[in-house]
Design a protein that fits this description.
InterPro entries: DsrEFH-like, Se_metab_YedF, Sulphur_relay_DsrE/F-like, TusA-like, TusA-like_sf. This is Selenium metabolism protein YedF. Residues 5-29 form the UPF0033 domain. Belongs to the sulfur carrier protein TusA family. The structure is a single chain. The protein is of the alpha/beta class and 200 residues long. The chain folds into two domains: 2-70, Translation Initiation Factor IF3 (2-Layer Sandwich), CATH 3.30.110.40; 92-199, Hypothetical Protein Ychn, Chain: A (3-Layer(aba) Sandwich). It has six helices and nine strands; from the N terminus they run E-H-E-H-E-E-E-H-E-H-E-H-E-H-E. The strands form two sheets. It has a five-stranded parallel β-sheet. A four-stranded mixed β-sheet has the order 1-2-4-3, covered by helices on one side. Strand 3 (54-60) and strand 4 form a beta hairpin. Helix 1 (14-24) packs parallel to helix 2. The chain is elongated, with a radius of gyration of 19 Å.
């Protein structure tokens, strides 16, 4: 199967996101991504290597044509550290105070929260920080289904902060696998200094 991704003129990390989606959509075959800058070329090369795919790069009239050959199936590409000069960020802080989205069905709420955090990785500008407290800290510890997405956000410069008191309360501080630990002073300071906040 063959897919072409024309990512010329797109801001980082969109060339990588579109290429990743194209690669995940095929079991085997070739994806050709076209970019117009060195940074995007390097980031897509990192993505291909992380998926153990062979690549061939040609330059033509100021654009890079990156052929990525996929000869094995992989459900999701692993998170990579992007080398963007300046990833855009909103002056937005998101406060997540529970491990599910909305009221009603707990099972549905967890599915919705997973979808929300994944979608944050797909949309720019990114938030400036995401704060976790109360049962929300269960999203940043071992066993959470959103760790990969949070690591992706952190790699893109989003600050991930969890309430230390909450981690202690749920006895999961030693299972923290993404972001740092803060206290109520840190949380209040981040919220007060943000131009926009969202509370979930």
């Amino acid at each position: 199967m063959y897919k072409e991704v024309d990512a010329r003129g797109l801001n980082c990390p969109l060339p990588v996101i579109h290429t990743k989606k194209a690669l995940e959509a095929i079991n085997t075959g070739k994806v050709t991504t076209i970019v117009d800058n060195e940074v995007a070329k390097e980031n897509i090369s990192k993505l291909a290597k992380s998926m153990e795919c062979k690549i061939d790069i040609q330059k033509n009239q100021g654009a890079y044509y990156i052929d990525i050959f996929k000869d094995h199936s992989i459900e999701k590409a692993p998170a990579i550290d992007l080398e963007c000069d300046s990833l855009p960020k909103k002056d937005l802080v998101i406060l997540i105070s529970k491990d599910r989205f909305g009221e009603g069905s707990e099972e549905l709420g967890k599915v919705l929260m997973k979808g929300y955090i994944y979608t944050l990785t797909e949309v720019t500008p990114f938030p400036k920080a995401i704060l976790f407290l109360n049962s929300g800290v269960n999203l940043v510890v071992e066993g959470s289904e959103v760790i990969e997405h949070l690591r992706n956000l952190e790699a893109n410069g989003v600050e991930i902060i969890s309430c230390g008191t909450c981690l202690d309360y749920f006895k999961v501080k030693n299972k923290l696998v993404v972001g740092g630990i803060g206290n109520m002073y840190t949380i209040v300071e981040k919220l007060n200094n943000a131009k926009n906040t969202i509370k979930l």
